[in-house]
C-alpha cells in the first residue's frame, strides 16, 4: 500500500493522509485532473466513483456519485479553489442529494493536496480541514479515514498503466 501515514489532529481540526508513488508529480497530478482516471480511485474499492462533471479549473466544480455494493448511490460535489499544477490543488468537498443539490446538513471539507518530488517518485499529502470537532468526528465515524486510505491505495495500479 502506498499510504504511509494518516493522522487526525483534533486541535487543528484536520485529517492528513500521506502517500508515496513511483511516478513523477506530473503523472500523479493527472489522476486528479483526468476524470476517467479520477473515478477509478476516488472512493474505496467497494464504492467506485462516477464523475458526471469535472471542471478542473479554479472556480470550477465537479459532481460525482459513488455506488455501493448494494447499488446505493452517495452523491458529492467539489468546488476547485486553487490550482498550481503539478504542485498543489485545493478544493471544497461536500455531500449532495440524488439530484446533485448540496446537502446543507452535512459538513463541507476543505482539501489541500500537495505533490512533492521524493527520490524517483512523488509524496502526495492530502490535508482535509473541518469547521468543528463535531464534523471531524462525524466523518471519521462514517469511515472517511479508512476510505481515503483505501482510495489512495488504488492509484499505483493506474500509474502502472501509463
Automatic annotation (TrEMBL):
Pfam families: AHSA1 (PF08327)
Cited InterPro entries: ASHA1/2-like_C, START-like_dom_sf
Domain Activator of Hsp90 ATPase homologue 1/2-like C-terminal: 22-159
Family statement drawn from the similarity comment of this UniProt entry: Belongs to the AHA1 family.
Protein name: Uncharacterized protein YndB with AHSA1/START domain
UniProt organism field: Amycolatopsis viridis
